[in-house]
């Protein structure tokens, strides 16, 4: 999964995990307590805490990847789902660097460590990159609405965060416009509300299943079974908005 802050990654991960019968890996904010320090005092606190926070995320994602690889190798589990990734974290770090809130020496060190971690999992079933990126595209105003509606105090108390959020949105949209290194399906969040609309949810899942089948991640019988399962889906098969 890849998308700017608050666009719905966790909700869709929960839905897909249930439908595919696989393992989902989530970003639990309680596991990243320094997020509060990062947001506490605008660009000053971001500059002070950006390196520690990004290293925290880096090791957090890496441990998730290690578990996912183990599940694939030892348990034969297919299509594990991550609500974020090392690649997404790298975009966040790059945005902070562009803003001057991540000094060049620290950014270079972070990048080197991130690339080392990716190369360490290359050659495993994960291959260092996802088999499929699911990108949730939406207007900037929609991103702000989602951030406000989920109600995390550290994300909403400082009005100057709007400028930071806009830079995050720009960075992810630029990635979406240019990324060609792996398979990708783009979900138009301006058009589809897969949390509250059953028909929208079915349409979004069908797009993802079609792509998984096209890249060889679903057999024909698995694909057919998933489409049949859509017929019985209800909104109770839900996840909370990220």
Keywords:
single chain, 242 residues, mainly alpha, two-stranded parallel sheet, 6% strand
Report on the architecture of this protein:
It contains 10 helices and 4 strands. It has 242 residues and is mainly alpha-helical. It has a single domain, classed as P-loop containing nucleotide triphosphate hydrolases (Rossmann fold). α9 (198-214) runs antiparallel to α10. The longest helix is centred in the first third of the chain and has 34 residues, at 42-75. The chain is globular and about 55 Å long. The two termini are 12 Å apart.
In CATH, what is the homologous superfamily?
A: P-loop containing nucleotide triphosphate hydrolases
Shape: globular
Indicate the CATH class.
Alpha Beta
Count of separate DSSP helical elements: 10
- Estimate what percentage of residues fall within beta strands: 5-15%
Biggest beta-sheet profile? 2 strands, parallel
In which order are the strands of the major sheet placed? 1-2
CATH topology: Rossmann fold
The quaternary state of the protein chains shown equals single chain
The ordered H/E elements are HEHHEHHEHHHEHH
Total beta strand runs: 4
**Could you estimate the helical fraction of the residues in percent?**
55-70%
Mean pLDDT value: 87
- Low-confidence stretches are none
Level-2 CATH architecture: 3-Layer(aba) Sandwich
What does the radius of gyration come to? 18 Å
The figure for the number of domains is: 1
Terminal residue distance = 12 Å
Class by alpha and beta content: mainly alpha
């Amino acid at each position: 999964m890849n998308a700017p802050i608050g666009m719905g990654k966790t909700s869709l991960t929960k839905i897909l995990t249930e439908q595919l019968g696989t393992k989902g890996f989530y970003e639990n904010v309680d596991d990243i307590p320094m997020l509060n320090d990062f947001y506490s005092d605008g660009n000053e606190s971001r500059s002070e805490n950006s390196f520690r926070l990004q290293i925290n995320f880096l090791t957090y994602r890496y441990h998730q990847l290690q578990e996912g690889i183990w599940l694939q190798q030892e348990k034969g589990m297919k299509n594990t789902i991550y609500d974020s990734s090392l690649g997404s974290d790298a975009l966040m770090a790059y945005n902070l660097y562009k803003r001057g809130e991540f000094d060049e020496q620290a950014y270079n060190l972070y990048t080197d460590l991130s690339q080392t971690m990716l190369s360490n999992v290359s050659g495993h079933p994960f291959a260092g990159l996802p088999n499929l990126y699911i990108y949730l595209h939406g207007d900037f105003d929609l991103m702000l609405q989602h951030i406000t509606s989920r109600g995390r105090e550290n994300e909403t108390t400082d009005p100057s965060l709007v400028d930071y959020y806009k830079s995050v949105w720009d960075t992810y949209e630029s990635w979406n416009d240019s990324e060609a290194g792996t398979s990708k399906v783009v979900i138009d969040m301006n058009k589809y509300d897969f949390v509250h609309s059953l028909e929208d949810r079915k349409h979004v899942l069908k797009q993802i299943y079609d792509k998984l089948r096209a890249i060889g991640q679903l057999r024909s019988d698995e694909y057919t079974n998933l489409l049949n399962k859509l017929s019985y889906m209800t909104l109770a098969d839900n996840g909370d908005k990220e």
